[in-house]
Amino acid sequence: MLTRPELESKTLKELKDLAVRYKVKPVGNPGYKTSWITPLLAFPVLAIQQFKANKRGLKNLSLRSFEALGTILNELGEPTDEQAALIRATLEGKLLPLPERYDQTRLLNLHKTRQLIQQTIEVLNQ
Questions:
Q1: Shared domain check, 45 and 67
Q2: Which of 4, 17, 85, 93 has the fewest CB atoms within 10 Å of its CB?
Q3: Closest CA to 67 of 111, 116, 110, 124
């Protein structure tokens, strides 16, 4: 991360640019370098403290919420061979006539949802 000597060697404009990049606000008078250095040094520590406190901002999922993702995945089920074939055809741009196209689109959206939930569970397990 950023170190105090690294930040102190930067110009006021460079510090402001860094702050804009990380969306950090100055503390006190924005005309002084220290007003930018302090929040730039503090934001990583504060972010980790907030995360560990699990009270605001991004929080760890509860076991119950994590299990709910598994329940949703089970409820969605696996596509049958025919459904998988229709999903592949849909991805190739082959569409059924109306009104069946609505169900075709819904099937594809459920498939995409299932994939995203699977990815979510994998990422959360890391």
A1: no
A2: 93
A3: 124
Q: How confident is the model at residue 1 (pLDDT cuts 50, 70, 90)?
A: confident
Residue labelled with tokens 């460079």: 14
78 and 120 co-located in one domain: yes
Taking all residues of the chain, what is their mean pLDDT, rounded to a whole number? Answer: 95
CA distances from 120 to 54, 70, 123 (A): 19, 10, 5
- For residues 33-61, one letter each, b for 16 or more C-beta atoms within 10 angstroms of the residue's C-beta and e for the rest, the string is bebbbbbbbebeeeeeeeeeeeeeeeeee
Domain membership of residue 23 (yes or no) is yes
Rounded to two decimals, the pTM is: 0.73
Enclosing domain of residue 82:
63-124
What token pair was written down for 54?
């699990």
C-beta separation of 96 from 104 below 8 A? yes
pLDDT in tens, 109-122: 999 999 999 999 99
Locus of tokens 């510090």 = 15
Final residue in a domain of this structure, among 32, 53, 74: 53
